Amino acid sequence: MAVTSKNIPAPDLVPVRRALISVSDKTGLAAFASRLAAAGIELVSTGGTAAAIAEAGLAVTDISDVTGFPEIMDGRVKTLHPLVHGGLLAIRDDPQHAAAMDTHHIRPFDLVVINLYPFEEVRNAGGDYTTTVENVDIGGPAMVRAAAKNHAYVAVLTDPADYGRVADALAENGNSLPYRLRQELAAKAFARTAAYDAAISGWFAETLDLADPDWRAFGGRLGEAMRYGENPHQKAGFYRTGDTRAGVATARQVQGKQLSYNNINDTDAAFELVGEFDPAESAAVAIIKHANPCGVARAATLSQAYGKALACDPVSAFGGIVALNRILDAQAAAEIVKTFTEVIIAPGADADALALIAAKKNLRLLLTDGLPDPRASGLTVKSVAGGLLVQSRDSAVVEDLDLKAVTRRAPDARELADLKFAFKVAKHVKSNAIVYARDGATVGIGAGQMSRVDSARIAARKAEDAAAAAGAAEPLTRGAVVASDAFFPFADGLLAAVEAGATAVIQPGGSMRDEEVIAAADAHGIAMVFTGTRHFRH
Asked: What share of the chain is helix, strand, coil (3-state, %, to 5)?
């Protein structure tokens, strides 16, 4: 049964006479505490925070002097006490609460300043089990939630970024804080503890290998508010989870305009794709438009790879995202800037490349200091009406799969290398996906069609258009290989690829009509390989 409210109205302005401060992150603490002390506000604190305030030359009361009970159990128990929580939770204008405060000698706290043990930091740094558990804060969230619940009378600060705002508000309101500010701080406090608990529960699920826990929570901190979402009439923000995976959330933006919602989405898709290719083996470039690759290639150098990737679909590449698996050099940069590009993302960039990119002031350049590991575990989340779809990341890599030649003719060495390349790319193309590849480069990509046959035809037509633009006698699909992200349910998709000139096919297999598809391949002298693994991407 729900708790009944007494409906006591909250005052607009609440004087701040006494503050409880207990922070793990001591950024800006001394300056903020000094402003509070200068305003005549009594400071009460705990452990290391009290020591830091005293070192700043300020008078401070240790929490043990308030509770009459020492910190015990390595500081695990210090604020879980009625004299603390009574001072946080008391409804000041409730006669019964006021009487209880008098009876038990409970003094109110008007301002609570708390940030939590660095659980997320320790977790993301790969701390061991016991260290990570030790950094689960108990007393901090308890006090934050108590103060936030009682925001009618208590202001709660969980972020050093708000110190100046609160200090200024105190100065403007005669050492009082307005109700609206207390509400906003409470909302932020509950969001903070929710994200904190989400990180803890997520870590437990990951550590204990709980694939489907009964409750799932995800949290993140606002990185930036965006001008709009996918479309101008939609609102959007970019929230960072603290995950250290190399990518758009952890990158440094060296130059260029603010990233848009679509920029971030597409850049993530581009970098995850290019991360499939080991930079020690070859340079690789992916050009992305609307979350789909319009060209991907590998070569000895980035400039060569970019040229091959661009040739796949130079029309779609206009205004696209370029992702690189090696440090951007001047030669590659000089080629990239010839085509209008929204974003370049790379593990790094040399000085000459930076100078060339700087001439294009609106071009965003993101540097990551690393590549995403395609084999790493992780979760992806998609919202649906009334729920969240949560799944493990698609970490299947073609080199780890058991490839089986199922046709009379097996692929030769050149075909097999291109088949593996094409299947890597198909993993990152919206389903239904068809990818033609030749000599380590895509030469036709068909994405997101309702029919696999249509995807095959679109990919072939794009190859024809690219050939015409290049003045070639025939499209590069002639003699290419083809990858399909899922099985061919009928032979028609395969036959469309044969018509385009494909000589070998890679696909998961598993259709009721596999034998029919294999027979069609054999009839046309096509080599076909089954992977046993599907790469749907919706």
From this structure: 40, 20, 40
Q: Which two tokens stand for residue 36?
A: 């509070």
Residue 108, SS3? coil
- Give backbone dihedrals phi and psi of 364, rounded to 5 degrees, phi first: -80, 135
Cα separation, 358 vs 496, whole angstroms: 45
Does residue 290 carry a catalytic annotation? yes
The percentage of the chain sitting over the pLDDT mark of 90, rounded to a whole number, equals 87
Tokens 């308030």 belong to which residue?
A: 66
Q: Is the C-alpha dihedral spanning 205, 210, 211, 215 positive or negative?
A: negative
User: Which residue matches tokens 């946080």?
Assistant: 88
**CB-based contact 521:488 (threshold 8 Å):** no
Active-site choice (26, 290, 360, 524): 290
Dihedrals phi, psi of 42, to nearest 5 degrees: -70, 135
Task: Round to the nearest angstrom and report the end-to-end CA distance of the chain.
Answer: 42
Please tell me the distance from the alpha carbon of residue 375 to that of residue 388, in angstroms, as a whole number: 24
Q: Computed from CA positions of residues 461, 317, 275, 244, in that sequence, does the dihedral angle turn out positive or negative?
A: negative
Indicate the helix (H) or strand (E) that contains 464.
helix 452-470
Asked if residues 393 and 500 have their Cβ atoms less than 8 Å apart, the reply is no
Q: Is 182 helix (H, G, I), strand (E, B) or coil?
A: helix
Q: Return mean pLDDT, the chain.
A: 94
Q: Using CA atoms of 140, 225, 152, 165 in order, give the dihedral in degrees to the nearest 10.
A: 80
- Give Cβ neighbours of residue 396 (< 8 Å, ≥ 6 apart): 427, 533, 535
Identify any residues that bridge with 530 across adjacent strands, giving them in sequence order. Answer: 404, 507
* pLDDT tens digit sequence for 254-304: 999 999 999 999 999 999 999 999 999 999 999 999 999 999 999 999 999
Measured distance CA(436)–CA(501) in Å, rounded: 10
Distance between CA atoms of residues 395 and 374, nearest Å: 6
> Contact, 139 vs 81, CB < 8 A?
no
Domains of the chain with bracketed CATH: 13-207 (3.40.50.1380), 251-367 (3.40.140.20), 401-530 (3.40.140.20)
Query: 218 — phi, psi (to 5°)?
Result: -130, 145
Question: What is the length of the chain?
Answer: 538
What is the rounded average pLDDT of the residues 476-489? Answer: 94
Q: Is the pLDDT of residue 498 over 80?
A: yes
Question: 366: buried, middle or exposed (CB in 10 Å: 19+, 13-18, 0-12)?
Answer: buried
